Amino acid sequence: MTLDRAVLVFAGLVVLVAVTLAWLVNPWWLALAAFAGVNMIQASFTGFCPAAIVFKKLGVRPGTAFQ
């Protein structure tokens, strides 16, 4: 798995977990989904993604988006 795919999978999981928790526990969990969305938008403009840095340190192969 490349770094790009790992970041996309992680972002998708965060959104799905947040929506599930909002549905089952408390609607305020939607703030986590909003945070993930804002982070994806800023990463597309700046190229800076904290999740990519963590995955890189864990040894995930580099992809093309996050150099």
Mean pLDDT: 93
Q: Domains counted in the coordinates: how many?
A: 1
| Strand residue content | under 5%
Which percent range fits the helix content?
A: over 70%
Q: What would you call the shape?
A: elongated
Concise structural overview:
The protein has helices spanning 3-24, 30-46, 50-57. It is an all-alpha fold.
Task: Provide an overview of this structure.
- With 67 residues, the chain is mainly α.
- The chain has one domain (3-57).
- 70% of the residues lie in helices and 0% in strands.
- The protein contains three helices and no strands.
- It has helices spanning 3-24, 30-46, 50-57.
- The chain is elongated.
- 15% of the residues are buried.
Write the layout of secondary structure elements.
Elements: H1 3-24, H2 30-46, H3 50-57
Helix pairs in contact: 1-2, 1-3
